[in-house]
């Protein structure tokens, strides 16, 4: 199982990677924005994408739209981790192709529940 | 428009929630202070702007020592090991506080967009605002240290 974590905050990437490692997932690729994320997807297979929304260069919504245009990523699960949690935000993210949503701040238990839910689809 | 006291209460609630879930620290709130009377002794300031039906800034203040403790706790490392990650961690804390405030305001019918965070690190500096603003400082105790969150509202 190979994860791609896309976030401009190195702190948040580290927290997510640490949490994934504790859950037993060791293979994690990191990117600092959507554009880098697309490059990482082009360089190797990814089974699950975890992305922030607000990022420089290419934000999370544009990243997901670009991701869904890549054949091998059309049906891969994408989790959005963001503070943008108003109803309109969630609708916009789902329309862009997000599979599930984690609102920051989150507990490790919430994170695990969301990962388990998207992997069980 | 949402009552300012309610805004302060929601900002304080968003702050304690961020600290409990992501920083793993319990905060004890001290009475908020309105105006320019209290200027915290801070070396690290995170700022996120917001605009919409209400406009202004959310600012987070801490000493360098407290900021290192916060970053270390978030990253699962000793405070002394925190180097270049401190500014990013404080930016992320400020971002989550402002995001929580935005969500709580949305539940009250306010529509806000928030900026990406900026962080200033240094000493002997003062934050001044060119426009007419209303400021409310919310101090918190974090163990033996103090951190503050300020709500700065532009007067429309």
Topology-level CATH name of chain B? Chemotaxis protein chec
- Global mean pLDDT of chain B: 91
Major sheet attributes of chain B = 8 strands, antiparallel
For the terminal residues of chain B, how far apart are their CA atoms?
11 Å
Please state the CA-atom Rg of chain B, rounded to the nearest Å: 15 Å
User: What would the principal axes of the Cα set say about the shape of chain A?
Assistant: globular
Helix content of chain A: 40-55%
The total domain count of chain B is 1
Number of beta-strand segments of chain B: 8
Q: Would you identify the CATH H-level superfamily of chain A?
A: Response regulator
Q: Helix amount of chain B, in percent?
A: 25-40%
Query: Given the C-alpha coordinates, what overall shape of chain B results?
Result: globular
Give the class-level CATH name of chain A: Alpha Beta
Based on secondary structure, the structural category of chain B is alpha+beta
Biggest sheet strand order of chain A reads 2-1-3-4-5
The counted number of beta strands of chain A is 5
- How many domains in all of chain A? 1
Order of helices and strands of chain A: EHEHEHEHEH
CATH topology (fold) name of chain A = Rossmann fold
CATH architecture of chain B: 3-Layer(aba) Sandwich
């Amino acid at each position: 199982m190979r994860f791609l974590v896309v976030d401009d905050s190195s702190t948040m990437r580290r927290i997510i990677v640490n949490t994934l490692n504790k859950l037993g997932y060791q293979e994690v690729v990191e990117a600092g924005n959507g554009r880098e994320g697309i490059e990482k997807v082009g360089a190797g297979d990814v089974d699950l994408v975890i992305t922030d929304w607000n990022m420089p260069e290419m934000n999370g919504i544009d990243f997901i739209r670009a991701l869904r245009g890549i054949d091998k990523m059309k049906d891969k699960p994408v989790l959005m981790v963001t503070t943008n949690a108003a109803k309109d935000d969630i609708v916009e993210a789902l329309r862009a192709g997000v599979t599930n949503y984690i609102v920051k701040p989150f507990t490790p238990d919430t994170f695990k529940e969301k990962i388990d839910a998207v992997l069980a689809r | 428009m949402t009552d300012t006291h309610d805004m302060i209460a929601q900002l304080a609630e968003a702050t304690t929630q961020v600290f409990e879930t992501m920083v793993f620290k319990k905060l004890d709130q001290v009475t908020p202070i309105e105006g320019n009377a209290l200027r915290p002794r801070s070396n690290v300031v995170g700022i996120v702007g917001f605009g919409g039906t209400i406009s202004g800034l959310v600012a987070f203040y801490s000493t360098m020592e407290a900021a290192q403790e916060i970053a270390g706790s978030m990253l699962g490392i000793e405070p002394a090991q925190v180097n270049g990650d401190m500014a990013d961690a404080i930016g992320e804390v400020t971002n989550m506080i402002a995001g929580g405030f935005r969500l709580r305001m949305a539940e009250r019918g306010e529509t806000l967009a928030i900026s990406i965070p900026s962080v200033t690190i240094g000493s002997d500096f003062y934050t001044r605002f060119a426009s007419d603003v209303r400021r409310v400082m919310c101090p918190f105790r974090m163990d033996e240290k103090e951190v503050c969150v300020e709500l700065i509202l532009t007067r429309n």
